[in-house]
Amino acid sequence: MERQFKTITRDSIPCWYELSWQEKEPAIILRVHQDFVESAPPIKQDAPIAIGLKKDFGFKKFTGSLNENFGFDDALEILSPKDEFTEFLIKIPEIKKVTQKKCRSCGGTGKDEFRAGEKCLTCDGKGREFDFDFEKAETISASLTVFFLLAMHPEKETSSPVPQLLTVQTTINRDIGGASLWGEYTLHLRKWLASLWQGGQTPILEMSRAMQTAYTKMFGPSDYIKDYAFRASVDYEWGWLNVDCPGDACGLNPGHDAEYDMKHGGGYKFTCHNVDNTGQQLTLLAGLAALHDLARKEIKNYEK
């Protein structure tokens, strides 16, 4: 019996949104096709998700229209339309901030008391204590969570000449694992990933570089976070993508049924592991945005 509905992992569906990466002045660009902007109903200020997130995180206001700054406290800044897409600028925020208080471990010297000539591990040699301010990152994460819910199932197809390449869902709360993300890679993206595989772990350096840039903007440079902490690689011939960023085994991996879906020619679902804060979530989203840019540029044939 012929299927009566389309799925993102098995069918080519016109693009309704996409992510892009801005390396200079690090930012994620959310691009929403104008057809979706016009057809998607605005989310009301008294919607349960808007009320709940405002209460949980103390946000001041919520805007649910895609014709202006979207989300909480103007987190997604609307730009001029471009190529049939409305664009939203999502600037990567600074989270780790140096205070004027002397580091309690080194007394402000920046030197390790027990290892001559070595930096203090606590303050990374700065001699000052750090504060971690997640407020801006939380407004971004909450705003994206609402948008991705709105965009989960578009009511009608757009007129875009190119297909959707990936979808994302996010969540935010203050529990462990409270900044999870998951989604789907389309059949086009999966085939392109498979074409990159050269045996073993085939790196996608554009993803790694974007993640490192985003993470460094949020948490500052550190001698203790090495390049290999930011990894994105195709690990099997079918297009199996693994992504890592700093944390306790923090990253993105294919979902439970992914191997079956890949071997049968489709796209597949991805999930995350130990994404405990919004900084990690934004780091991984930066990687996905860079992946999207590269794939959109390199995929020449969207035929099944």
Give short descriptive properties of this protein:
304 residues, alpha+beta, 2 domains, seven-stranded antiparallel β-sheet, four-stranded antiparallel β-sheet, 7 helices, 28% helix, globular
What does this structure look like?
- The chain is α+β, with helices and mostly antiparallel strands and 304 residues long.
- It folds into 2 domains: 17-95 and 133-298, no CATH class; 96-132, no CATH class.
- 28% of the residues lie in helices and 24% in strands.
- The protein contains 7 helices and 15 strands.
- The chain has helices at residues 34-39, 48-57, 135-150, 187-196, 205-219, 258-263, 278-298; strands spanning 17-22, 27-33, 62-63, 71-72, 77-78, 85-91, 96-102, 128-132, 166-170, 181-185, 202-203, 231-236, 240-245, 250-254, 268-273.
- A 7-stranded antiparallel β-sheet has the order 9-10-15-14-13-12-11.
- A hairpin with a 4-residue loop joins strand 13 (240-245) and strand 14.
- Helix 5 packs antiparallel against helix 7.
- The longest helix is centred in the last third of the chain and has 21 residues, at 278-298.
